From TrEMBL:
Domain of life: Bacteria
InterPro entries, per database record: Knr4/Smi1-like_sf
Protein's name in the database: SMI1/KNR4 family protein
Length: 131
C-alpha cells in the first residue's frame, strides 16, 4: 500500500517541528521522513500559512476551519461569565467561540466555552476551584 504524504516544515527547532500538509496521520512513530521539494510561494502552503490580520481568522486558517461568517455567530452574552470569572476575556477568543464553539484541537488542546455540553469543555467548570 502506497502512503502519500505531502508535508511542509513550517517551523523547526531543536525541540520540535511544526508541519502543515496532508498524510501526516499515515506516518508511524518509527518512520523516517526525509527529502525536499521546492514550495511554490503562490501555492497552497503560502496561502495557508500567511498570517491574516485577525488572530481568529489565522487560527481558523491553520486548523482548516471554514471562514468566519458573522451571520453564523451565536452572539453570546459574555458579561455574566466574565463577571463570574473576574476577567475580561479577549475579543479574539470570544469571536472564535461564537463562530466555532468548544472542542478539541488535535487531541491535545481543549477549547472551552461557556455552557458547553461537557464538563471538560465548559469554561465555568474548568475555571472553578476544585470541588
Amino acid at each position: 500500500m502506497e502512503r502519500r504524504v505531502d508535508l511542509v516544515v513550517v517551523e523547526l527547532t531543536g525541540a520540535y517541528a511544526i508541519v502543515a500538509g496532508t498524510g501526516g496521520e499515515l506516518l508511524r512513530p518509527d518512520d523516517i521522513v526525509s527529502g525536499q521539494r521546492p514550495v511554490d510561494d503562490a501555492g497552497w502552503a503560502a496561502e495557508r500559512l500567511r498570517q491574516p490580520p485577525d488572530a481568529t481568522e489565522f487560527l481558523a486558517l491553520l486548523l482548516g476551519l471554514p471562514a468566519l461568517n458573522a451571520g453564523t455567530r451565536a452572539g453570546l452574552d459574555w458579561l455574566p461569565i466574565e463577571s463570574e470569572l473576574g476577567v475580561t476575556l479577549p475579543g479574539d477568543y470570544k469571536t472564535f467561540i461564537e463562530a466555532y464553539g468548544a472542542g478539541v484541537i488535535d487531541d491535545h488542546i481543549n477549547v472551552c466555552a461557556p455552557n458547553a455540553g461537557h464538563d471538560w469543555a465548559d469554561l465555568r467548570y474548568t475555571n472553578s476551584p476544585p470541588r
